[in-house]
Design goal:
Number of domains: 3
Strand content: 15-25%
Distance between the termini: 68 Å
Number of strands: 11
CATH topology of the largest domain: Arc Repressor Mutant, subunit A
Oligomer: single chain
Helix content: 40-55%
Structural class: alpha+beta
CATH class of the largest domain: Mainly Alpha
Order of helices and strands: HHHEEHHHEEEEEEHEEHEH
Low-confidence stretches: 1-15, 81-87, 122-126
CATH architecture of the largest domain: Orthogonal Bundle
CATH superfamily of the largest domain: Winged helix-like DNA-binding domain superfamily/Winged helix DNA-binding domain
Shape: elongated
Largest sheet: 5 strands, antiparallel
């Protein structure tokens, strides 16, 4: 007879257990996305031995995950979220059924079979969503170590807002916006950049000291940074005024009313953030000054492919 949940002896979940669990979850992620990798490379990413890598793969196979490899012995996970008859429960429905089945008497063969099927078909999707959050935590922890030890890092497979993927070689400077971004000096582009942490696949701390003298750069109210403050004056329609205060509440002290028209008199670090706001409201915002912002907007409009 299986022990109930209350009868299972408690065990301290120490840091070593947490790392093992993370590595198994991370392996699932690596096996389910391209490029597929050989076990030696998987072990290198997970910081384990190849023997342990094979053991983790056998473990996943034992609990029902279907893992295969190509002719070059690059391993991948077979994931199929569709049923042959096209009728598939969504994740919410499956979760509801799982809760009901867990309340049924233990040991019933039908209950156990249904739980096994539901777990195999639906556990991976929420797991991958949770793993994204866990990865962000790990990236913050690693970047924090790099900042503390003053070491350069490589941001592997960084996804830009335009959908491009690449590796960035940087000197981290500081976290920004509640650990949403890492502000860093891009050593290849010789310029400061802001990188969204959830778009980073892997963070590698290098055995190279940070050599530059970097200053903290405060973000403007639109979430951008830059080398200097830029003065901006805008005339806003009623709708633009409302949206500005809803989306960027920190802009409130910089808005005044003149002859019944809302005026934004503020300062920004870069044209990108405020430019995105203006271009998203065609005909609702008039740029009073500066001329450089007007030129930037004309250039962006000229890049649009209508």
């Amino acid at each position: 007879m299986k022990p109930s949940v209350q009868q299972v002896p408690k065990k301290n979940f120490d840091m070593n257990d947490q790392q093992k669990l993370y590595r198994v979850f991370r392996l699932i992620q690596l096996l389910s996305q391209r490029p597929y990798r050989k076990v030696a490379r998987l072990a290198e990413i997970l910081e384990i031995s190849p023997e342990t890598g094979y053991r983790y793969i056998r473990l996943l196979q034992a609990i029902g995950y279907q893992i295969d490899h190509d002719e070059h012995y690059r391993y991948f996970l077979l994931v199929d979220f569709t049923h042959e008859d096209g009728k598939l429960l969504d994740t919410e429905e499956a979760g509801f059924l799982q809760d009901l089945l867990w309340q049924a008497p233990a040991g019933h063969p039908l209950r156990d079979r249904l739980l096994h099927k539901l777990n195999r078909q639906y556990t991976l999707a929420p797991l991958m969503q949770s793993l994204v959050k866990f990865n962000v935590y790990e990236h913050i922890r690693t970047l924090g170590q790099a900042l503390e030890s003053e070491r350069r890092v490589r941001l592997h497979n960084y996804y830009t807002g335009e959908g491009k993927v690449g590796t960035r070689y940087v000197e981290p400077v500081e976290f920004q916006q509640g650990y949403t971004y890492i502000f860093a000096f891009d050593l290849d582009r010789k310029d400061y950049r802001q990188f969204k942490i959830e778009r980073i696949s892997d963070v590698e701390i290098l055995d190279e000291p940070i050599t530059g003298e970097h200053e903290s750069r405060t973000l403007d109210i639109f979430g951008w940074t830059g080398p200097r403050w830029l003065t901006v004056t805008l005339k806003l329609s009623t709708r633009a005024h409302q949206l500005l205060l809803e989306e960027y509440p920190d802009a409130r002290p910089f808005v005044r009313t003149h002859k019944g028209r809302a005026i934004f008199d503020g300062m920004v670090r870069d044209w990108h953030g405020i430019g995105r706001f203006i271009l998203g409201l065609p005909g609702q915002v008039a740029v009073v000054e500066p001329e450089e912002l007007k030129q930037y907007l004309r250039k962006r409009i000229g890049e649009f492919d209508f």
